[in-house]
Design brief:
The complex is a heterodimer of chains A (271) and B (370).
Chain A: E1 9-10, E2 18-20, E3 28-33, H1 47-51, E4 60-65, H2 74-89, H3 93-97, H4 101-104, E5 113-119, H5 121-135, E6 144-149, H6 158-167, H7 175-182, H8 186-190, H9 196-210, E7 221-225, E8 243-245, H10 262-269
Parallel strand pairs in A: 3-4, 3-5, 5-6, 6-7, 7-8
Antiparallel strand pairs in A: 1-2, 2-4
Chain B: H1 6-13, H2 18-29, H3 33-39, H4 51-77, H5 85-96, H6 98-107, H7 112-121, H8 127-130, H9 133-138, H10 143-158, H11 160-169, H12 179-186, H13 189-196, H14 205-229, H15 234-243, H16 245-250, H17 252-272, H18 276-293, H19 296-306, H20 312-317, H21 335-340
Helix pairs in contact in B: 2-4, 2-5, 4-7, 4-15, 5-7, 10-11, 10-14, 11-14, 14-15, 14-18, 15-19, 17-18
The chains are: A alpha/beta (271), B mainly alpha (370).
């Protein structure tokens, strides 16, 4: 039914992460990682619908990673993401078993370019996961590109996120219940500017970058909304200059739609 | 968007594992008529408690869901999807079987299989085919809508917390934890905070119910969005809605009751959290949205009228025809069996309105209204 991809299918054991696998894969994969109180699809709005119709993404596998972002500690979420990425990229038997039969029998296939698109907390846990993978000697991290929207890698003020969610049309109504209480969650504490998680992420990333080949730890592009009051807009280690998008806030900056195609274009630019 | 060829149809249906379903359903169809009638009886006649019986009815439900999805595809493209010969035969045989007809058309009415059967068996100038003609001529690309629909349709299977919430919403209890316990948490600010800040085990029923509730709200929002996006395609919108008619039609009054109760229970919790005003407004919006999504007539009428007289019986049962009777407490889809056989019955204070709903004047339809 889709011209270039197989239909949506779970790609992890919990069924929280959904894949659109290419019918004719060219070795590229994009993994989307949502943020605090986000959702694998809703965070990116219509990104999945737009991408599967893009000819330039025809050969690219699309993965929308889902995880519980409120209750678990950030390091635990990073650990789960690390395991997921490693299993995905190394095509473990369990991952292959969840792929379309035609993809399971594709001989000699491997990923040669891994693009991770992450938002807010998702950016922080992605960085932690990649850092640990790099330290652990996962050579495939050399093929990783990072595109970050409103990253929380320098810390966040989640009280502001709650306000933003409350006033944002189209946000999940009942997830606000979580918002009211989640400010005391460990994940939110982990995103405070001076938390151990944030401080160690920066210092260890800086050390890894100093030591050499950790190119995966340097983002290709970092984008903030002009009106973002949730995360701290500060440069992270050797990242490039931030792009600031006029008129957007923390949650709108990454939402692709037929009317707002900038996020989609940025993703396609990474291919 | 053109019709689905055989390969595309096979891909869409793969999630139902149709070969396994055909095998199970085929064996069932070969059994004696009395056995079939008893197996697919209404739970109101005799409770459904035998595990094998439950499993078989689940498979029949899944088969019917597969048929409903096929019908959605027909109404999205204006063309009946191409089917492999053996699957087409199995669908026609199953949907024509007297006991199965009684099951999906009377005991637990679900209308889309009726349309599919007609399209697979009637002449090209019959009503089920004629209704597809304008869709074909309109030739709108519905791919994006179908992507959303298929994802939404599969979501309850894939999301264990959402599945858990649907189960307790359906009267199921897990170690004594059911809808009453969930509502109690909402009404207890300390307990709610305890759950939400991660003080419970990840598999705790309390946490799963709250997460499931959030997922359910998202599900409703996304479904609402899907219906809005399909507003210019009323037949497809009807098909989307009827695909989920178990929740938004058959169980509509209970669904409303639960959402209203959730809103009421959350009030003290929110006040305790000292930030309730906004949440209260959004909960009110949520209740309104559920009310809107449960208006059978609004969503079902375009398809009922277009397919006339094929859905007249269903329409009459659900008050969307000229000869309207008061709605009965009927149920459909796979959940009926799970609910029929709960590990333990609820014993709390929150009672389900089983056959006669509480007064909800904003959706009541007068006798004879059309």
């Amino acid at each position: 039914m889709l011209p270039h991809h197989y239909l949506d299918a779970p790609i992890d054991a919990t069924g929280e992460s959904i894949s659109y696998l290419s019918r004719n894969p060219d070795g590229r994969v994009i993994v989307f990682v949502h943020g605090f109180m986000g959702d694998k699809f809703a965070t990116w709005h219509k990104m999945h619908e737009e991408l599967v119709r893009e000819p330039t993404a025809a050969g690219t596998d699309l993965i929308f990673y889902g995880y519980a972002s409120v209750q678990p500690q950030a390091l635990a979420s990073a650990g789960l993401l690390r395991q997921f990425l490693h299993e995905l990229v190394t095509l473990t038997p369990s991952v292959k078993a969840r792929m379309h039969p035609a993809r399971q029998s594709l001989a000699g296939f491997s990923y040669s370019k891994i693009i991770i698109v992450a938002h807010s907390l998702g950016a922080a846990i992605t960085r932690r996961a990649l850092l640990d993978l790099h330290k652990g000697g996962a050579t495939w991290t050399n093929y990783v590109s990072l595109l970050l929207f409103a990253p929380a890698h320098r810390g966040a003020q989640l009280a502001e996120l709650r306000k933003e969610l409350v006033h944002q049309s189209g946000s999940s109504i009942i997830s606000l219940i979580s918002a009211f209480f989640s400010l005391r969650s460990q994940a939110s504490r982990d995103l405070e500017r001076k938390s151990v998680f944030i401080r160690q992420l920066k210092s260890e990333t800086a050390a890894a970058l100093t030591n050499g080949s950790a190119t995966c730890l340097k983002a290709r592009k970092v984008i903030f909304g002009q009106k973002d009051s949730v995360v701290l807009i500060e440069r992270f280690c050797d990242d490039p200059c931030e792009a600031i998008w006029h008129g957007h806030n923390h949650t709108s900056v990454c939402k692709a739609s037929p009317q707002f195609t900038d996020p989609l274009r940025e993703v396609l630019n990474q291919l | 968007m053109t019709g689905l060829n055989q390969s595309q149809t096979t891909e869409v249906l793969a999630r139902y594992e149709p070969d396994d379903l055909m095998e199970t359903v085929g064996r069932f169809l070969d059994s004696p008529p009395a056995h079939k009638r008893f197996t697919l009886r209404s739970h109101k006649t005799t409770p459904i408690e035998d595990a094998d019986e439950i499993a078989l009815r689940d498979d029949i439900d899944e088969f019917l869901e597969m048929c409903s999805t096929l019908e959605v595809m027909s109404l999205a493209t204006g063309v009946v999807p191409e089917l492999k010969f053996d699957l087409r035969t199995a669908i026609v045989d199953t949907l024509s079987d007297e006991s199965v007809v009684q099951y999906y058309a009377v005991n637990y009415p679900t209308p889309l299989p009726t349309l599919l059967l007609a399209q697979l068996t009637e002449d090209e100038d019959g009503p089920a085919h004629s209704m597809l003609l304008p869709i074909r001529e309109q030739s709108v690309d519905t791919t994006a809508l179908l992507i959303s629909f298929l994802e939404l349709d599969a979501r309850p299977w894939r999301n264990r917390d959402l599945q858990f919430f649907f189960d307790i919403l359906d009267g199921y209890q897990f170690d004594g934890f059911g809808i009453d316990a969930f509502l109690s948490i909402l009404g207890d600010a300390d307990q709610l905070a305890h759950v939400l800040i991660g003080k419970t085990k990840i598999d705790a029923h309390e946490l799963r119910s709250i997460n499931g509730f959030c997922q359910f709200a998202t599900f409703c929002e996304d479904f609402d969005q899907l219906c809005k996006r399909a507003a210019d395609l009323p037949l497809l919108r009807s098909a989307f809605w009827l695909n989920f008619s178990y929740w938004f039609c058959e169980r509509s009054h209970y669904l409303r009751k639960v959402t209203r109760e959730a809103r009421a229970r959350l009030a003290p919790s929110g006040n305790a959290a000292n930030s309730f005003e906004d949440l209260h407004d959004h909960m009110a919006d949520f209740v309104v949205m559920v009310d809107k999504l449960t208006r059978t007539r609004d969503f079902a009428l375009p398809l009922v009228e277009s397919a006339a007289p094929l859905l007249d019986h269903w329409a009459e049962m659900h008050g969307v025809s000229a000869t309207r009777r008061r709605r009965r407490g009927t149920r459909s889809t796979r959940r009926r069996n799970r609910r029929d056989h709960p590990p333990s019955r609820r014993d709390g204070n929150f009672e389900e309105a089983e056959s006669e709903p509480e007064a909800l004047p904003e959706i009541e339809i007068e006798e004879g209204e059309h």
